[in-house]
Write a structure and sequence with these properties.
The protein is about 30% helix and about 25% strand. It is of the alpha/beta class.
């Protein structure tokens, strides 16, 4: 998840135009997601992803990242936390509308690659509140927003984390990988 140095994942109007991405970051993310086959989203982020990734590779000016991520996205299982999509069926998509702790715990108990959450601050807040996040991949952008949507707003209890890895990109973004130390 991209985050400002002062801990915001979006500006006050949900803007994300401050996020730095480039081919170096796309390559890093591509290597990272290659080991996973499941993505978790909140409804807003899911709608945004569905509006772009299924056909991103088909565009005449598609980048290498667009082609690779589109292929991954179409094959990945999508889990969407949403009350408004309850009862709606979408291909390769599971909607979780209630019993968050129970439903996500069931998913985590199934052997296989990890579940990655992309963006989705509201979903992240709900998962944090239920202590369902095992690790964080934070792309810390060199900017202070001062206000906006904080990443850790819903965190109610002390959570010790262990730094697993860090990587500094040439554009000044630092990727920090933490795991829950429980």
């Amino acid at each position: 998840m991209h985050v400002s140095l002062d801990g915001f994942v979006a500006g006050p109007e949900r803007e994300m135009n401050w996020i730095k991405v480039d081919e170096e970051i796309f390559s890093h993310v591509g290597q990272r997601i290659a080991d996973s086959d499941t993505a978790l989203y909140g409804r807003v982020t899911y709608d945004m992803m569905e509006g772009y990734w299924p056909t991103a590779a088909d565009k005449p000016n598609a980048s290498k990242h667009d082609i690779e991520h589109s292929r991954w996205y179409k094959q990945a299982k999508k889990i969407v936390l949403s009350k408004s999509l309850e009862g709606i069926s979408r291909p390769n998509t599971q909607i979780i509308s209630g019993n968050l702790r129970s439903e996500v715990s069931k998913l985590k108990a199934v052997p296989g690659p990890e579940i990655l959450i992309f963006g989705s601050p509201s979903a992240a807040h709900a998962l944090m509140k239920e202590d369902l996040i095992d690790g964080y991949w934070l792309f810390v952008n060199p900017i202070l927003l001062g206000r906006g949507i904080p990443l850790f707003a819903a965190k109610e209890a002390h959570t010790a984390l262990t730094l697993i890895d860090s990587h500094t990109f040439s554009n000044g973004v630092v990727c920090l990988h933490y795991e829950n130390a429980r």
